[in-house]
Structures are given as C-alpha cells and as structure tokens.
Amino acid sequence: MSAPVAIVTGGAGGLGQAIASTLLADGFRVALLDRRGAREAAGRLGESATGITADVTDETAVRAALDEVEATWGRIDALVNNAGIEPQHSLEELDPATWRATLEVNLTGPALLIKHCVPRWRRQGGGRVVSIGSRVWLGGGATGSYSASKAGLVGLTREACRELGPLGVTVNVVAPSFVRTPLNAEKGDAGFVEAYARRFAAASPLGRLVEPADIAGAVAFLLSDRARAITGEVLHVTAGTQLAPFIP
Ligand SMILES: NC(=O)c1ccc[n+]([C@@H]2O[C@H](COP(=O)([O-])OP(=O)(O)OC[C@H]3O[C@@H](n4cnc5c(N)ncnc54)[C@H](O)[C@@H]3O)[C@@H](O)[C@H]2O)c1
User: What are the residue boundaries of the Ketoreductase domain, all occurrences included (predicted)?
Assistant: First the structure.
C-alpha cells in the first residue's frame, strides 16, 4: 500500500507543525490545512507535505481542500482536527460574536471535516480521527467559550465514535494542558506567560510542562495500528495536571 495520508488542520501553528513532523517521520504524507501560512509550513517539511489555505469554518473550502488532497494523493486515511482559537473574555462582558467564532472554529470546523471525510472512508473501508481538545473540558480554567467548545468536542467525538465505528473509523480526543505555542503567547506579555507556565509545572506530579512532541506522539499513537481498538476515548497529555485542582 502507498504511504497513508493525514490531514492536519491548523498545520501552520505550534502543535500542528509538531504533529505534522511526527506523522511524516512515521511514514505519512501530510496535508497541512490552515487559514494562513500552510504553504510555507509545508515547504519547511519536505516533499511528503503539502499546504492548503482553507478556513475550517467554511464548508465549501473544507470540501475543496479534501478534494485537492484526494486528487493529489488518491486517499485520506487520517484527520487531525487541531485548528483552534482561544479569544480572551469574561462571561460578564461576552460579545456574542466572540462566542460564535470560538465555537465555529473549535467545534463546527471539526464536525465539517469529519462530515466530508465520511464518504471517502466509506469507500476506503475505514479511517481515523484525532481531535485536539484541552484539559479544561474537565474542570475549566480557560474562558467560557473555549472550555465549552472543548467539552463539545468530546460530545462530538463520542457520537462520531458510535456513528462511524461500523465503517471502521476510530475517533478520539487528545487533551493537552499548557504547551508553549503562539496560542499561549497571545495571552499576555512574556512575564505573564512564564508565570503561567511555572504554575503548570508546579501543579504537575511530574514537575514538568508538556512539549509539542508529547502531543504529537499521542496523536501518532492513536493514528497507528497499535490503537486500532481505541475509540471514543479522551487521552490527557498533561503531565498529570488533569488531576490538579483549578490552576489560576
Ligand atoms: N498550546 C496549548 O497550551 C494548548 C493546550 C490545550 C489545547 N490546545 C489546542 O491545540 C490546538 C493547536 O493549538 P496551538 O497551541 O498549536 O495554537 P496555534 O495558535 O499555534 O495554532 C493554531 C493554528 O490554527 C489555525 N487556525 C485558527 N483558526 C483557523 C481556521 N478557522 N481555519 C483554519 N485554521 C485555523 C491558526 O492559523 C494556527 O496556525 C488548538 O485546538 C488548541 O485549542 C493548545
């Protein structure tokens, strides 16, 4: 069989780049799908990577992106729903547009990607989905819109696991804690982000932060044949901080 093909949304971002690199090392061909920077990011990864500019909330663009991948490589084996945003807001001052935008990118996007992969997986006889959630789906610690979107992703995963299992598709969530990426750099100045990172390391039973490669390794495992009997699962990659009380 030719090399399997994975789509990584948000592929130009911090975790997306790490996930794509690991999947390439595992023998995948990888299509990075991002609203910006996808082609440049793919260019840095070599000829088994391709970049497609698309917004995951735009169904027409999603369908066209998947068509492009299939036309190029003939198949789609795995979908990594990684694109995400985390606008900062309080609930008291919530702008409904911010709420909708967060849910659109973090939850509607993955649903649209799954929807348009299904007919291809029906033809191919199986497929894999891993969506990047967050530890905050359990106990919060971010913002209302973000935590709601990540909890929703677990609901979507469990429904997809039931609906798509008979097609041979596994569907899981990898739930990280704090990882140094541009997403967190936007939360405040360097001092604020460092203090935040230190609180996470202190709350970890392992006394460490999670790195992008840790998330990528978990995704690669769930996409591998070793994980063929795992579906509907949430794999926390948090250095144990999913057990920690609220981290302020
Ligand atoms: N970094 C962390 O601490 C952390 C923790 C838990 C979960 N996560 C999740 O991991 C995922 C990746 O985050 P990251 O830390 O790499 O952030 P990042 O900001 O580095 O990357 C996110 C990528 O998503 C892309 N994106 C955003 N909206 C998009 C859209 N509408 N269509 C297509 N692409 C879009 C961005 O352009 C960016 O390249 C996100 O889902 C995030 O919620 C991150």
Answer: 4-182
Tens-digit pLDDT profile for residues 115-171: 999 999 999 999 999 999 999 999 999 999 999 999 999 999 999 999 999 999 999
> What are residue 126's phi and psi, to 5 degrees?
155, 170
Task: Please work out whether the CB of residue 134 comes within 6 Å of at least one atom of ligand 1.
Answer: yes
Asked if 203 and 246 count as a contact pair (C-beta separation under 8 A), the reply is: no
What gap in Å lies between CA 152 and CA 146, rounded to an integer?
Answer: 10
Map residue 235 onto helix, strand or coil. strand
The 3 state secondary structure assigned to 163-227 is HHHHHCEEEEEEEECCCCCHHHHCCCCHHHHHHHHHHHHHHCCCCCCCCHHHHHHHHHHHHCHHH
Please identify which of the residues 28, 73, 99, 146 carries the catalytic annotation: 146
**Residue from 15, 214, 236, 241 to probe ligand 1 pocket by mutation (most atoms less than 8 Å from CB):** 15
Q: Can you tell me the mean pLDDT for 183-193?
A: 88
- Catalytic residue list contains 196: no
Q: Determine contact, residues 161/231, Cβ cutoff 8 Å.
A: yes
Domain ranges of the chain: 5-239
Does residue 34 have its Cβ closer than 6 Å to ligand 1? yes
pLDDT at position 1 is 67
